Amino acid sequence: MRISQANWFEVEKYLENDDRCVLPLGSTEQHAYLSLSVDSILSEKVAADAAEPLGVPVFPAVAYGLTPYFMAFPGTVSLKLATYAAFVRDILDSLYATGFRRVLIVNGHGGNCPVQPVTMEWMEAHEGARCRFHDWWKAPKTWTCVQEIDPVASHASWMENFPWTRLPGRDLPSEQKPFVPFDRLRDRNAAGVRELIGDGNYGGVYMKPDADTERLWSIAVEETRDMLQGDWT
Hints:
This protein is mainly alpha-helical. It has one domain (3-229): Rossmann fold (3-Layer(aba) Sandwich), CATH 3.40.50. It contains eight helices and three strands; from the N terminus they run αβααβαβαααα. The chain has helices spanning 8-15, 38-51, 81-97, 116-125, 140-149, 182-185, 190-197, 210-229, and strands at residues 20-25, 102-107, 130-135. It has a three-stranded parallel β-sheet, with helices on both faces. Helix 2 (38-51) packs across helix 8 (210-229) and helix 5 (140-149) runs antiparallel to helix 8 (210-229). The radius of gyration is 18 Å and the shape is globular. It starts with 7 loop residues before the first helix and ends with a helix. 37% of the residues are buried.
């Protein structure tokens, strides 16, 4: 169940028998011709689709993350690492205080990965707490599917283009964009990143047939569900 569609009475009743929940992490950043909220949309939806048959609560996606390299693209919002770490820690503290003990973080933005040590520190400070950090798009089975469909896939390419992330009425380029060399992205500021990547796609075609992305999504949901219902001992 999505927390946004539940009341506190229902959550209290749930906690009488289960202590799992899902916290999606997203971002507000450029995704070329796709929504600026791609990472938040995808992390929350894959979490909700995975948790729905299990009845596990899914909290709203944290809509802002760590994306300083995209600050030359209007609409992007980036938090400082210290701010983000404290923010995630406060959320986890709140979940623990209200009765949750097993938290699956479903991360939708690679830039958020530096916050992982916060989960380790949190578990050390809270008896009985467990936290898993799941980068849904690069989990083994999901990434294997990406490679099978088209190995030239990256940020803002077809692998993030779903009916729920694309914007109506926007035309997409038809060609395959060559990969941007990642080593050149790491040694320049935001203006330099924009100059290097142009429209924001890191490489790949902009859209694939829905049959391909439906297959990818199904595997991602299943793999996320396995993380949630797997052995927590």
